[in-house]
Design goal:
Layout: E1 7-10, H1 15-28, H2 32-40, H3 46-54, H4 69-82, E2 85-89, H5 94-110, E3 113-117, H6 130-138, E4 141-147, H7 154-162, E5 166-170, E6 184-186, H8 202-214, H9 222-231, H10 238-252, H11 257-266, H12 275-292, H13 296-303, H14 307-349, E7 357-362, H15 369-380, E8 384-389, E9 395-401, H16 408-414, E10 421-424, E11 428-434, H17 438-452, E12 461-464, E13 466-468, H18 475-481, E14 496-509, E15 515-522, E16 525-531, E17 546-558, E18 561-573, E19 576-580, H19 588-598, E20 603-607, H20 610-617, E21 630-633, H21 634-640, E22 646-649, H22 656-664, E23 671-674, H23 712-725, E24 728-729, H24 733-741, H25 747-759, E25 763-766, E26 769-772, H26 785-800, H27 804-816, E27 826-828
Parallel strand pairs: 1-12, 2-3, 2-4, 4-5, 5-6, 7-8, 13-14, 16-18, 19-23, 19-27, 20-21, 20-22, 22-23
Antiparallel strand pairs: 8-9, 9-11, 10-11, 14-15, 14-17, 15-16, 17-18, 24-26, 25-26
Helix pairs in contact: 1-2, 5-8, 5-9, 5-13, 8-9, 9-10, 9-12, 11-13, 11-14, 12-14, 13-14, 14-15, 21-22, 24-25
């Protein structure tokens, strides 16, 4: 058994929904699969679906519906007429860089006298600041236009007004209770703003200002809008979907040197660029500038008109991005270690772990703390704040990432008395405060989490669009799904539940064996699968395992060949896993090393007898036997009633009924390791073995006794012989009878068969002789206790040394018979 990491929620359509999907498929000539997905995502009417699939510029909303737009347009036009010096004030993330870039192109086209300013993340922090405003005033700036920032800058804009600077704010972050006294505030999230779509990115708001000033949508800048919208994780619905789709089309044939150079260093083929390419290839490099140095380098790249200059700028950002990756990895390790220690301290003190992770460290680069927070959310699934501390002032700057159901902006608002500054939205936020407030902030944020979140919400949820089999995983189906692009927040790539897939092969790939490469079989075909970051699961998988996998279909291109590939995001095995190494004939030392690599977390080693345990305990330290796993005999384990998820069978089990009883004690059994062989001797104690633990024989770990026959024909031949020769002297009778029978039968077996006949009252001992009982009552051999015992032992051996498939079935039967068991079968490796 292998538990999934998340709660799987498979979308289902009721009969009425299926009917709507069928009608939609007919009206729009869509594949049934696409129509079903559209209905599931709320596009169940012909016009709504048509707009979703084909909507263009006609679907854009009137920019003047944005509150403050009219005043902003008038003031910018006035600045142009007067020849005023205008400054664009941006932000240092990819959305801010994109917004600054777009406004740069706009003001160039309008013929304004202008420049731009982006604060330094570390030295100045987020948003407007008095020092930057003073610099603007000293430079003669009379109009400041913010992009992707400003909605919370009450004091700063008041300072700008005092210095004679008018401020136009374009922003998309959550407005605070008190709004700044700007000349114009353009933010669709203002409570009294009638704009119908609230999900624009900062660059989307800048685009609407450009549209208002130019009198038409500047389609040639939608590539910039796509970059910022995707990078800022805005929902790809409504107007964003139109802008991003147009932007991707623009990118595929862009003449902008900056975008071409950026794509080249990211290894992206622009003619086939996707939203995922932008998210994971372009955006991180743009963000790297503001995270490690200054975001101005990214603006220079996107506004560069010279090919050579663009290539140099792109290379610089690529170098910064690699450095950013290194810093992130180191910070994640340090932060997670800090959190693990915190949890350990809580466990030792008998108190619960904090419900919200708040970690701060001196020297942590505040440019990457948001990424670090995201990675801890992925690993721990708790709202997470990561902050860098200035050791001289004690001031902390940080970023937060949330989970579903926990509104970060609302939570920080409830704690605003502890904060010097904060901003953001439900899923992500930034803040600054003094280190002395960290403890109180953690306590109060945690209390809110306990109040707001139900028990289910503490487990990550994975929404699944469709259940399918390997037969459905084809390029044709993938091409159908691509009709729903662009994919992103609010319109995720269709997530599939792949069922009835058997594991044919597995291996780890990548640096430090990070990734998992699988070959899946089912319905007579094979399918490749890749699980990025899932390499540690390799030892938990067994050949032939019946897997359920959640993920997405993609194209794998290699040597000119294109085929479907499944990208695994989560998986589970709903049955006990069997690791079958009965034919390996390995020494105890080798077995110990193998078990150590298996990374068993809650297991028990079962041995037939005490001498086996002593042989294992006397292994030298060089044997590398795993520590912390108890060694038990079968009877001891049954009496212990200890929880156990993995059973490790070393030495042939005494009997199947004892093994079955042990399995019955493990309500949450996940795996069985069969590490015994047919001899019953200590592993590696065969004649051709050079094992280091040969002394185990001297200590009673001996080979099992030979099996006794239950062959009825043999019993019949022996009885026929007895009828001819009896009476016969009992002493030495077994040897004499063996000669008379004319085939080799050992004395022990013959003695056992004679005992069976005595128990059946076919023969008896009288005056030192074996004599036939006259007129015996006819009885079946099973009336003999000795015969039944031998028969039971043979049946046990047949199970214990059956082929893997049969042993698998038997273990499955024992698991299914367990009360309240959730297991469903067995896989084998």
């Amino acid at each position: 058994m292998l538990q999934s990491r998340t709660r799987w929620m498979v979308a289902e359509l009721d009969p009425e929904g299926m009917q709507r999907a069928s009608l939609l498929a007919g009206k729009l000539s869509l594949p049934p699969l696409v129509a079903k997905l559209l209905v599931q995502r709320g596009f169940d009417e012909e016009e709504k679906a048509r707009i979703f699939l084909q909507g263009g510029l006609e679907c854009l909303h009137d920019p003047f519906l944005l509150k403050g737009m009219g005043a902003a347009v008038e003031r910018i036009q006035l600045a142009r007429e007067r020849g005023e010096f205008v400054r664009i004030y941006g932000d240092y993330d990819a959305d801010g860089v994109s917004s600054t870039t777009l406004m740069n192109f706009l003001f160039q086209r309008l013929g304004l006298k202008f420049d731009y300013y982006i604060p330094h993340r570390t030295l100045e922090g987020y948003g407007l600041n008095a020092g930057a405003i003073d610099k603007a005033a000293d430079a003669g700036v009379t109009l400041l236009v913010t992009v992707d920032t400003g909605i919370s800058a009450v004091e700063q804009i008041a300072h700008a007004n005092a210095r004679g600077i008018d401020v136009i704010v374009t922003d998309h972050h959550e407005p605070p209770h008190e709004l700044p006294a700007a000349l114009a505030l353009i933010n669709p999230k203002q409570h009294d703003c009638p704009y119908p779509f609230k999900g624009l990115a900062g660059v989307g708001v800048a685009f609407k200002l450009a549209e208002a000033l130019l009198g038409e949508p500047p389609v040639e800048w939608t590539d910039i809008v796509a970059l910022g919208t995707i990078a800022d994780l805005m929902p790809l619905t409504d107007e964003n979907r139109v802008l991003v789709r147009l932007g991707l089309d623009e990118l595929r044939s862009t003449e902008k040197p900056g975008f071409r150079a950026l794509a080249e260093v990211a290894g992206i083929e622009l003619p086939v660029v996707t939203a995922a390419n932008v998210a994971f290839g372009m955006a991180p490099r743009i963000n790297a500038a503001g995270r490690l140095q200054h975001a101005e380098a990214a603006v220079r790249l996107l506004t560069e008109s010279d090919e050579q200059g663009a290539q140099a700028a792109a290379q610089y950002l690529d170098t910064l991005n690699r450095e950013r990756q290194r810093i992130v990895e180191e910070t994640v390790q340090e932060a997670y270690g800090m959190w693990a220690n915190r949890c350990k301290e809580c466990a030792e003190a008998g108190r619960p772990e904090p419900s919200v992770i708040v970690l701060a460290g001196e020297g942590w680069n505040v440019g990457v703390v948001g990424i670090v927070a995201s990675k801890l959310v992925e690993r721990c699934y708790k709202p997470t704040l990561i902050l860098g501390i200035d050791p001289e002032t004690g001031m902390c700057k940080g970023s937060a990432r949330s989970i579903e159901g926990y509104d970060l902006h609302a939570a920080l608002t409830a704690c605003e008395d502890l904060l010097l500054h904060y901003g953001g939205h439900q899923a992500a936020a930034g803040m600054s405060l003094h280190r002395d407030q960290l403890g109180e902030l953690e306590t109060r944020l945690g209390k809110l989490a306990d109040e707001w979140l139900s028990s289910e919400q503490w487990v990550a949820k994975t929404a699944i669009d469709l259940a399918c089999t390997i037969e459905d995983a084809t390029l044709d189906v993938l091409n159908q799904l691509m009709q729903l692009e662009p994919f992103g927040i609010g319109n995720a790539a269709p997530r599939l539940l792949l069922q009835d897939a058997a594991l044919a092969d597995r291996r780890v790939i990548g640096k430090d064996s990070t990734h998992l490469k699988l070959t899946l079989s089912g319905e007579g075909k094979l399918l490749d699968a890749i699980g990025f970051g899932l390499g540690p699961l390799a030892h938990k998988l067994t050949d032939g395992a019946a897997l359920e996998l959640v993920g997405e279909l993609s194209v794998n291109e290699w040597n000119g060949q294109r085929k479907a590939q499944f990208v695994v995001q989560d998986m589970r095995i709903g049955h006990v896993r069997l690791y079958d190494r009965r034919s390996q004939h390995e020494s105890l030392s080798v077995i110990g090393q193998w078990l150590q690599k298996a990374a068993i977390e809650q297991g028990a080693i079962l041995v037939p007898s005490d001498p086996w345990r002593e042989a294992i305990e006397e292994l030298p330290p060089t044997a590398n036997w795993p520590k912390g796993i108890g060694i038990w005999t079968y009877d001891e384990f049954r009496e212990s009633s200890r929880p156990c998820r993995e059973l490790i069978l070393i030495g042939r089990p005494p009997a199947t009924d004892k093994l079955a009883a042990v399995i019955g004690c493990c309500q949450e059994l996940e795996a069985v390791y069969a590490l015994y062989d047919e001899t019953g001797s200590a592993p590696g104690m065969h004649a051709n073995s050079n094992s280091s633990n040969s002394s185990s024989f001297k200590r009673g770990v001996d080979a099992a006794e030979p099996l006794l026959t239950t062959d009825r024909e043999q019993f019949g031949r022996l009885y026929g012989t007895l009828r001819r020769v009896c009476p016969i002297a009992e002493a030495g009778s077994a040897e004499r009878l063996a000669v008379m029978l004319g085939y080799p039968v050992d004395g022990r077996s013959l003695a056992y068969m004679l005992q069976v006949f005595k128990e059946l009252e076919f023969i008896e001992s009288r005056d030192g002789q074996l004599v036939l009982v006259p007129m015996p009552i006819k009885k079946d051999l099973t009336h003999s206790a000795s015969f039944r015992e031998a028969q039971h032992r043979l049946e046990s051996e047949a199970i214990l040394f059956a082929d893997a498939k049969q042993l698998t079935a038997w273990i499955g039967q024992q698991v299914e018979s367990m009360p309240l068991s959730k297991n469903e079968g067995v896989s084998v490796s």
